[in-house]
Amino acid sequence: MKSIYVIIIVSLLILTTGCVSTNTPEETVTSFAYSASTGDSNTCYELMSSEYKNNTTLDDFATSIQDDGDSWYEYKFISVIEGSKKLNKNSAFLEVEYEKESISDDKSFGLTKLLGKALGQEYVFTKRIELINESDGWKIKDFHVELR
Fold it and tell me: First CA to last CA across the chain, in angstroms?
């Protein structure tokens, strides 16, 4: 009986390996954010528009997704804002929420953020993301560090 489960699981893994569901703009953005959070720069790169990939090598992209050059802040994707989707012919715009934290907050065990909140400082922001509908699904037009 266990061997049947193993065969089923292995079969499912083989069938889904390399597949990135990009049926909707929301799925593309959330897939990108998840892949970025796990360090999967190859999947993230595949979710970028053809125009972006024509101008950016995978190596350059992988470097920028790991280190955006901002030594002061860390960005964390939260979610796509419900009802924010605006569709045009072959493009879509989504509003996403992300958190922006000071790097120094890691060293202070969260006290910087706690003090900032007490003083009314905002940590959750929104950003508009543009996607392009290409032959193989929805793709993100430009790289946004906020989707990491």
Answer: 41
Task: Please state, in angstroms and rounded to a whole number, the distance separating the CA atoms of residues 22 and 136.
Answer: 8
Summarize pLDDT for 69-116 with one digit per residue, the tens. 655 567 889 999 998 889 988 999 999 999 887 655 555 555 555 556
The answer as to CATH 3.10.450.100 being correct for domain 2-147 is yes
Among all chains, which residue has been given the structure tokens 């929420």? 97
pLDDT digits (tens, 9 = 90+) for 2-32: 444 434 444 444 444 445 445 899 999 999 9
Domain boundaries, the chain: 2-147
Q: CA 76, 121, 80 angle in degrees (round to 5)? A: 35
Q: How far is CA 10 from CA 3, 5, 40, in A?
A: 10, 9, 21
DSSP for residue 146: G
Q: What phi, psi does 48 have (nearest 5°)?
A: -90, 155
**Alpha carbon of 94 to those of 7, 73, 80: distances in Å?**
40, 23, 7
